[in-house]
Amino acid sequence: xxxxxxxxxxxLILRDWLAIERTKLANERTFLSYLRTTLVLLGTGITxxxxxxxxxxxxxxxxxxxxxxxxxxxxxxxxxxxxxNIGKYY
Length: 90
What we know:
The protein has 90 residues and is mainly α. It has helices at residues 14-50, 58-89. The mean pLDDT is 88.
């Protein structure tokens, strides 16, 4: 195989290397947004459950607590899948 078909990191020009770095940073930003969403769901769920004047919507608190680890799991899965794909090609 020639280097044109399967470039190594040393064969990349600056523009391509910067594009890969931007993609890595975007992947990290996306994971952090999933983490931020997880923390908001967790905090909201605990607040709705603990505060007595929110008793009529306490079920929503439980739903938020259930959704919190699901959002985190999706974010973690997407982060590592994208990281692996980036590493596989470059």
